């Protein structure tokens, strides 16, 4: 089980807090990525917001991103969604480039102009993961209205999250539908997890696969439902 109980509690706490400002979330297509490589352990969750409004993103780093390890002058770690899944033997180079369906290219991403950034440049839009003495980083959450969950060139499904240390790829993990995300990145699923358009709904009987509920109920229910199913 890749989600530790502390992460589950932090996600639910974040949902309860955030729902005061953002009351609705699509529960049917939640994506997650677990990274556990070379001492770096981190969890990412992407929950679609209603009406194609992007995603609510939750991040928790359990270990590995310490000030001793960071070599960037900013003391932070970049992280992005990359086009391909992780390669055999946890090969982060196999993930290809950043997810960039609008062909922004290598232009510097400015947080003040997220519409001019690559879809996958999460740290460019929302800031780097700041190193700490222990290497653990407290849970954080934000909205990214440019993340997509459908479309062959735009969906984040089947791709990967890559953490960089001053440009060098140091850890990575595949992005799966949440109920299938029971393990970190592996080489055995690379071929079958390539992007394929629409992410299938995890709930039966939903019209068009779009179940819209309050944020707290959506996240708490999905988390505990997935944990019970593992």
Automatic annotation (TrEMBL):
PANTHER family on file: AGAP001623-PA (PTHR20910), SUPEROXIDE DISMUTASE COPPER_ZINC BINDING DOMAIN-CONTAINING PROTEIN (PTHR20910:SF1)
Species for this entry: Linnemannia hyalina
Residues annotated as domain Superoxide dismutase copper/zinc binding: 75-167
Biological process annotations from GO: superoxide metabolic process
Entries under SUPFAM superfamilies matching the protein: Cu,Zn superoxide dismutase-like
InterPro entries membership: Cu-only_SOD (IPR053257), SOD-like_Cu/Zn_dom_sf (IPR036423), SOD_Cu_Zn_dom (IPR001424)
GO molecular function: metal ion binding
Keywords: Signal
Presence of keyword Signal: yes
Name the UniProt record assigns to this protein: Superoxide dismutase copper/zinc binding domain-containing protein
Region (Disordered): 180-205
Composition-biased stretches (Low complexity): 181-195
UniProt signal peptide: 1-21
């Amino acid at each position: 089980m890749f989600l530790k109980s502390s992460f589950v509690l932090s996600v639910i706490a974040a949902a309860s807090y955030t729902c005061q400002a953002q009351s609705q979330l699509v529960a049917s297509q939640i994506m997650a990525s677990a990274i556990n490589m070379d001492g770096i352990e981190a969890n990412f969750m992407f929950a679609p917001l209603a009406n194609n409004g992007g995603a609510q993103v939750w991040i928790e780093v359990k270990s590995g991103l310490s000030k001793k390890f960071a070599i960037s002058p900013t003391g932070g770690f970049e992280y992005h969604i990359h086009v391909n899944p992780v390669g055999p033997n946890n090969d982060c180079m196999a993930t290809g480039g950043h997810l960039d369906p609008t062909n922004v290219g290598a232009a510097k991403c400015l947080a003040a102009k997220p519409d001019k950034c690559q879809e996958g440049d999460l740290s460019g839009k929302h800031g780097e993961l700041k190193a700490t003495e222990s290497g653990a980083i407290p849970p954080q959450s934000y909205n990214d209205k440019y993340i997509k969950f459908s479309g062959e060139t735009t969906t984040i499904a089947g791709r990967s999250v890559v953490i960089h240390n001053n440009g060098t790829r140091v850890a990575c993990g595949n992005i799966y539908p949440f109920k299938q995300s029971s393990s970190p990145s592996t080489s055995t699923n690379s071929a079958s997890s390539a992007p394929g358009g629409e992410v299938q709904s995890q709930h039966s009987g939903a019209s068009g696969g779009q179940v819209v509920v309050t944020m707290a109920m959506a996240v708490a229910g999905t988390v505990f439902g997935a944990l019970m199913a593992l």
